[in-house]
Amino acid sequence: MSNEPTTTDSTRAGEGMEASTNTLKIVRIFKAPRELVFAAWTDPDQLAQWWGPKELNTPREKVAVDARVGGTWTATMVMPDGSMEFPTTAKFTRIDPPNGFEMREEPGDVFPFAVTVSATFEDVDGGTRMTVEQHFDVESFDFSDSILGWGSSLEKMHALLDS
Question: How far is C-alpha 154 from the geometric centre of its chain's CA atoms?
Fold first, then answer.
């Protein structure tokens, strides 16, 4: 696989996403100020409303955020019948409200390698440009499922923030 980024198709789910060998970059524009977009990531009540693909639930009691360097960010997606859970736990390595953050998930059950997620929020035309980069500490990674999952999650985020 080449290190050159490839852009996904123009469907809404893949809109604004490009992947290289080990990094997925997502750019979305929200009709909300930076403070609200930042809060959607760091306020557990809001995070529970949009995190995870539409086929899964993220119950409020399975979300916890300690938004400070060294603090933990946890969100657990659950199958509708409760048969399986998909936890994500990361530690903030940088946090700069409302401009952005970076967090790192250490190797675990979901991914056997570390994952770093960074997000920046910029004012644009009465809204916010959100840029998220998900970097996997491996030589290469197939982002097909990630693109679908992020796309579905971000549709829910748009519904929460753009109304």
Answer: 8
**What pTM was computed for the model?**
0.88
- Distance between CA atoms of residues 103 and 94, nearest Å: 7
Give bridge partners of residue 25 from the DSSP assignment. 18, 133
Cβ atoms of residues 63 and 75 within 8 Å: yes
Label residues 19-52 b or e (16+ Cβ within 10 Å = b).
bbbbbbbbebbbebbbebbbbbbbebebbbbbbb
Helix or strand run (H / E) with residue 157:
helix 144-161
Q: Integer distance in angstroms from the first to the last C-alpha of the chain?
A: 40
pLDDT in tens, 8-29: 333 344 568 999 999 999 999 9
Question: 40-74 pLDDT, tens per residue?
Answer: 999 999 999 999 999 999 999 999 999 999 999 99
- Token duo for residue 99: 């401009």
Which domains occur in the chain, in start order?
Answer: 6-161 (3.30.530.20)
